Amino acid sequence: MAQVQVHREGIEFEDPTLVEGLPGVGLVGKIAADHLVDSYDMEHYASVLCEGLPEIAVYAEGDPTVRAPVRVYADAERDLLVLQSDAPVSPSAADEFASCLVGWFDSQGLTPIFLSGMPAEKDDVPEVYGIATGDGETLLEEADIGAPTESGAVTGPTGALVHEAQRIGMTGVGLVVEADPQFPDPEAARALLNTGIGPLGEFEVDTEALVEQAEEIGEAKERLAKQMQNAEEEESTSARPLGMYQ
């Protein structure tokens, strides 16, 4: 049965925020999510068993414990949850996946932050803007996050999640950042953390290590980036100008 299986019922939250980190353009969401989990030594809180995920066994270096490919980590001190993903979502099951996951968000009273990269050539610090579902516009204004500078659409599994959140009237926020369309982009992930996630979650994010380890991160993530490039467009999260769909 499709579900989110919670392993740590004893962890309590007041008004939790969840950061979504599915792979996509520049792997910006995944890099940002991984950085939060590692920086705060977050606890494995739940396993995502929704339809659309590959039935694979994931394990980590130095740890023989097998885990689900998509997991939720928790930090009660910061009232924070992070969705960490090691596998793409099947495009044929994106709707079922989004319904399952957003349904769980709603049942837990979470405010989701969805992350997406916009393919772009960057000259300076990557631009970040926000989109909103429900009453999310108020959250963007309070965090001083700018509005889109052009019409666009979020595709892939993150697009399906945002669509489902909008459909049920859930308050949520989407962050879109300019990102390298071909390679992992730690710089764009850093912009998401500093400009969007930190202010929205009302906590400080130390991203110096992310900059220093950019080369190492690039090498570690490049294989997954190539896999995402070869996948169907709907399988990879992306934000693109709306003109591409007209």
TrEMBL record:
Region (Disordered): 221-246
UniProt name for this protein: PAC2 family protein
Classification via Pfam families: PAC2
Domain of life: Archaea
Native species: Haloarcula limicola
Stored InterPro entries: Proteasome_assmbl_chaperone_2 (IPR019151), PSMG2_sf (IPR038389)
Gene3D superfamilies, per database record: PAC-like subunit (3.40.50.10900)
